[in-house]
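User: Sequence in, structure out. Go.
Assistant: Echoing your sequence, followed by the structure tokens.
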Amino acid sequence: MREEIITSGRMNPHIDPYLEIWHWHIPLYLFLGGLAAGILFFAGLYVILGKENKYCGAVKRAPIIVPFLLVIGLVALFLDLKHKLYFWQLYTTIKIQSPMSWGAWTLMAITPLSFAWAAMHIREFFPKWDWKLPILKEIERFLHQNKLVLAWIMVILSVILGIYTGILFSAFNARPLWNTSILGPLFLTSGLSAGAAIIILFSRTHKERNNFAKIDILLISIELFIIVHMFMGFLASTEVQIDAANMFLGGPYTAPFWIFVVIIGMILPALLEVLELRKIKIPVVLPVVLVLFGSLMLRFIIAYAGQMSRWLY
């Protein structure tokens, strides 16, 4: 671990013991959760808008990967638990003031919903698919009949899940970098951007790809605005939060954050999408991979940098 964390006396210059607890599990879980939330949000939104047949990539095709994303994310979260056999106790109570309670119950609701949504549209990938058991056919018929209701529920839960991935950090008051309410909107916007990028990959029509390229450019612009606003807030706050911001403004995380997250993960894919909209041929997968890389790096860098920032006791 890096020992050259902060040179001022207001931040602990030694290795933070929490760095030995969180490795890759939590950032990966937050990335996959945000990505799943982004995909499901657009799937539900276009059903609500009555445009599911025009945007099959968003509504029917991209959501097929969401159950896998959530399962992998939950496995990563489970691996990070210290007392793994007691995870079920999260579901014995509901605490409105607890981000972990919100996250646990949201995941409990949205995971089976994602499986149901994927099952409803499985014929997009397997046209001859047929449910053998009559009860499964009845369930499928019921889901299609109530698709609009499911879409509304999915949109609401996906927004909660996307915001929760940021609020999970901001609930740690002892970490100045995380102690800001702006992480919720930032992670939500990042998840929506990653979801839009995946939908571009699954889109069948040029119109749908262009539409989501425009959406992604807008979301990236919002992300950049939020990031600038976040640092402005830190620099106008207490000295420990100024120190936290300085980790990205000349400190050890300056190059990783601005190169991997901002330049490679936001500005470059946005420029490529602009070129694509101007009918300059760009490989579809390139901006998608860059957006996903930037979204993943955002979680990792915020997670590790946040553990290095702390109050001096």
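User: And one key feature?
Assistant: The domain at 17-308 is CATH 1.20.1630.10 (Formate dehydrogenase/DMSO reductase fold).
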